[in-house]
Amino acid sequence: xxxxxxxxxxxxxxEFRSWLEANLPDELRAFDTHFDxxxxxxxxxxxxxxxxxxxxxxxxxxxxxxxEYGGRGAGLIEQVIYDVEYRRAAAPALAxxxxxxxxxxxxxxxGTEAQKRRFLIPMLSGDExxxxxxxxxxxxxxxxxxxxxxxxxxxxxxxNGGKIWTSGANYADWMYVLARTDSKAPKHKGxxxxxxxxxxxxxxxHPLVTMAxxxxxxxxxxxxxxxPKENLVGPLNEGWRVAMTTLTFERAISGGSGHDLQIxxxxxxxxxxxxxxxxxxEHEWVRQQLAQFxxxxxxxxxxxxxxxxxxxxxxxxxPEQSTLKLTGSELSVRIARFVTELLGGYALIDAPSExxxxxxxxxxxxxxxxxxxxxxxxxxxxxxxxxxxxxxxxKE
Length: 396
Ligand SMILES: Cc1cc2nc3c(=O)[nH]c(=O)nc-3n(C[C@H](O)[C@H](O)[C@H](O)COP(=O)(O)OP(=O)(O)OC[C@H]3O[C@@H](n4cnc5c(N)ncnc54)[C@H](O)[C@@H]3O)c2cc1C
Fold this sequence. Notes:
Elements: H1 7-23, H2 42-57, H3 76-88, H4 99-110, H5 113-125, E1 130-133, E2 149-152, E3 156-163, E4 174-180, E5 191-197, E6 203-208, E7 217-228, E8 232-233, H6 239-251, H7 259-272, E9 274-275, E10 278-279, H8 284-312, H9 320-343, H10 359-368, H11 379-390
Helix pairs in contact: 1-3, 4-5, 4-6, 7-8, 7-9, 8-9, 9-10, 9-11
The chain binds flavin-adenine dinucleotide.
């Protein structure tokens, strides 16, 4: 591995860093983009949408997308530099996160030219927002068992059923949705993928509030919804292949990020909070735990670089993506547990106080720490993938 950036790459880094310094409003700086990627209020949602528009106009959105769809056609290394700088600036998740990373490339692979021209630029600019309608009650890990039906009625498909855990459906203009179009075919064969206008008659969005009191999720019901025929993405009854494209991109971003920033902030906190009569930092086990987290962050960083090296050499994806997803999300849970040991009762107070001015951040981290071990495929499913595909263990 060559860890040095070329002068051109260094210049690219400086250019993006300076742009963010000049244009990112302080009030939009986030603690962890993964825990609040659906903003709690419409006001924050609109502020982030405005930032997205500005980034889009300066051509700083999805730089890896082809120029004809608003990107720069940037290479992998620029993409890595971009991500590092974005996190360093504590910039927030934008309106179409994570759809720009997972649905955008899916549409590029499977959409018709007309669909790409119609949807990709408004997705990037934030003029239109999206949500993902895959999971159903009873069909999460076993997604192919989904029961929502789209029945061919000649001029249109009629959609009935419902989706659950739909992040951000309350803000979305469009949903990419999986539905069964052939109920007699084996379960992976009779599914199709569509896009759905969320304002269509018969679509109802009901909130599901998380234990942190946040309306992140929704349950979405469909009753006799008319889906125009041109809303089909990819071939009829081949939606499972379309979904697999989305999930491959989703897994790559579901391990969480910013652990290193959390650990830095925890090390600062440990010097100021008192534990058993002395600064927490003076307890050996506190320093050892922080050092252990830092070591694991470094291991994650080098695993990510190994994955990048494979991509640069145009090798097929290896086990790194599932490893990153599994270890990154499990690290989030352990960091959350450590926060409770360090902060005691303060970790569960959602309001700033003198000893802990940024208490809401820790409160959210503690209560949301586990979510990444479920989103985009649970830890148990990642264990199955690694066991079966990497280690060649027999299937259960
Ligand atoms: C933060 C967050 C955001 C999400 N956003 C969306 C979204 O926008 N759109 C969307 O469609 N979905 C979304 N989801 C849903 C997510 O994809 C599902 O929750 C996930 O796939 C798990 O499905 P489930 O909840 O039905 O659990 P289940 O599949 O019912 O699993 C229950 C338990 O059984 C275990 N289990 C299941 N099968 C196996 C097996 N074969 N081997 C071993 N253990 C097994 C699981 O690991 C889990 O512990 C989101 C979830 C979260 C947490």
